[in-house]
TrEMBL record:
Subunit structure: Homotrimer.
Native species: Paragemmobacter amnigenus
Family note: Belongs to the PNP/MTAP phosphorylase family.
NCBIfam families for this protein: PNPH-PUNA-XAPA, PRK08202.1, PUNP
Keywords annotated in UniProt: Glycosyltransferase, Transferase
Pathway(s): Purine metabolism; purine nucleoside salvage
GO molecular function: purine-nucleoside phosphorylase activity
Name used for this protein in its record: Purine nucleoside phosphorylase
SUPFAM superfamilies: Purine and uridine phosphorylases
């Protein structure tokens, strides 16, 4: 943990108050508007040293600290992806800050392509596990034995059970599946998608996995939800593009918001 994190935490407390944060939320492509649902203080990433601020279109580069359904949350409106600058640990300052503010858990969200015919654009998928198809790791270079993070239950079983129960309560289908991290920024080829399917992937995307690894390294519980924006390459005639991702993400975002609100209302 660097000194920078203490300075970041002091800055956030000075602007947003001392009350500890319970949960972090990382918003994926096209989901940035969820930050607007939180009553609180928005801090531009540009004010937070070490935070990404160039960003990808469709993201909202602010940290919002405030209440959602009576729970104090830290909403990260944008993430830096590996493909932007080649840094798989780009979200480490954000996750360290979350922990320094008292956070115990983080829920990551993303946009993803589906490899399963029963999970369609506009649907949500809860990550039961992931495959690191990129071969990259945000802990490379970490000098201590803490780097040998067990990943057996990386996607927290209790958090997932609560999210599934909330989805059922609000009438949103939340199938579980395995997310494959592909570095991007080019999309996958149909042959790569066939390979990922054989390897056990249910959805594919360009984020989240490094955040899950970092969260476990830092002792944060973690769960992640994909909003499916398209069928993966070769599985439909629809053209895959970032524009399409941004246009489709709000469909899933509305469902995601209902699930998350219920989940927070019942967080113990
Ligand atoms: N592949 C990778 N990332 C994505 C996709 C996809 O098909 N859709 C949205 N993000």
């Amino acid at each position: 943990m660097s000194r920078n994190v203490d300075e970041l935490a002091a800055l956030v407390r000075a602007r947003a108050g001392d009350a500890p944060v319970r949960l972090g939320l990382i918003l994926g492509s096209g989901l940035g508007h969820l930050a607007g649902a939180v009553e609180g203080v928005a801090i531009p990433y540009a004010d937070l040293s070490g935070f990404p601020h160039a960003g990808v279109s469709g993201h909202n580069p602010h940290l919002v600290i405030g209440e959602l359904e009576g729970v104090r949350v830290a909403v990260f409106g944008a993430r830096e992806h590996y493909y932007e600058k080649g840094n798989p640990a780009a979200m480490r300052p954000a996750l360290e800050l979350l922990r320094a503010l008292g956070g115990e858990a983080v829920i990551a969200t993303n946009a993803a392509g589906s490899l399963r015919t029963d999970i369609r654009p506009g649907d949500l998928m809860l990550l039961s596990d992931h495959i690191n198809f990129s071969g990259l790791n945000p802990l490379i270079g970490e000098a201590t034995d803490a780097r040998f993070v067990p990943m057996g239950d990386a996607h927290d079983p209790a958090l997932r059970a609560s999210l599934r129960a909330s989805a059922e309560a609000v009438g949103v289908a939340l199938p579980e599946g395995v997310y494959a991290w592909y570095s991007g920024p080019s999309f996958e080829t149909p042959a790569e998608i066939r390979a990922i399917r054989i390897l056990g992937g249910d959805a594919v995307g360009m984020s989240t996995v490094p955040e899950v690894i970092l969260a476990r390294f830092l002792g944060l519980k973690v769960a992640a939800i994909s909003t499916i924006t398209n069928m993966a390459a070769g599985l439909s005639d629809e053209k895959i593009s970032h524009e399409h991702t941004k246009a489709m993400a709000p469909l899933g975002a509305a469902k995601l918001e209902r699930v998350l609100r219920h989940f927070l209302r019942h967080l113990r």
